[in-house]
Specification:
single chain; mainly alpha; two-stranded antiparallel ribbon; 3 helices; ligase; EC 6.3.5.-; protein biosynthesis; ATP binding
Length: about 100
């Protein structure tokens, strides 16, 4: 995949970053360099490799899964633009 100047402009717009027209070719080159690094990573065989969260073995901190401030549905639904029968009401998107 190759990023051209128009695609770089679109990505900058989506990221809400103002990029001058004369800087777009350099930005496109940077994107292409990044994509090249990603393609190199895709060539690495990771079969049988366990995912890790850190370079040093450690266990993630966990907490008890308990309700700490329950029974506040009415208070929460007061902030909703539209609530019915104790639930958030949203527009229908699927026919």
């Amino acid at each position: 995949m190759s990023i051209d100047k128009d695609t770089a402009r679109k990505v900058a717009h989506l990221a809400r970053i103002r990029v001058e027209d004369d800087a777009l070719p350099a930005l496109a080159d940077e994107f292409n360099t990044i994509l090249g690094f990603i393609e190199e990573l895709n060539e690495v065989n990771v079969d049988g490799i366990e995912p890790m969260t850190s370079v040093t073995p450690q266990r993630l901190k966990r907490r008890e899964d308990v309700v700490t401030e329950g029974d506040q549905a009415d208070k929460i639904l007061r902030n909703a633009p539209d609530a019915r029968e104790g639930f958030f009401a949203v527009p229908k998107v699927v026919e």
